[in-house]
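In pairs, describe these two lines:
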Amino acid sequence: MTTPTRLRNDVRALTTLAERDLSKLWQQVTTAAAAQQALNDTLPALIETYGMAAAALAADWYDEARVKAGVGGSFRAFPIEVRDPGAPVLAGWALSEGKTLDTARVLVAGGVQRRIANAARYTVARSSIADPRAQGWRRVGDGSSCRFCSMLLGRGAVYTEASASFDAHDHCGCSAAPAF
């Protein structure tokens, strides 16, 4: 079935795998300095690996949604390129002065989740903008949206400009869907 829920669930599964990998890292560190080094060494590849998988899933999902919607013409969605030079910044912020390793663990997990989900969101949004048969993209909630996301969902907008960004927060369950 080609629904935003299916894509969202697939991306959540990838996030769960990334969290499992991070859990192994956290078991090996006992100090903030050790955690900082381990995260700096690990996060870029972790985010790239799972982000590329999320982007590929989103491109395939987009193509299936296009066919299911009966959209004619030839277009193939394209996964975005995933590189996260900001991963060390995430680690530094999560481990900044006064934060415990337990707090850092939650903050890093949220940042990683957002980055992986963004790979899928941006793939759908950018493909929707590039697709000559699409009207653009829209935000789709997961049924338990926060006030920020509910406000954005309430606009009911279809975004058509490449400059329109998909604003999301850590642990956000919203996704992008093409508007045909």
The chain has one domain: 4-179. The mean pLDDT is 89.
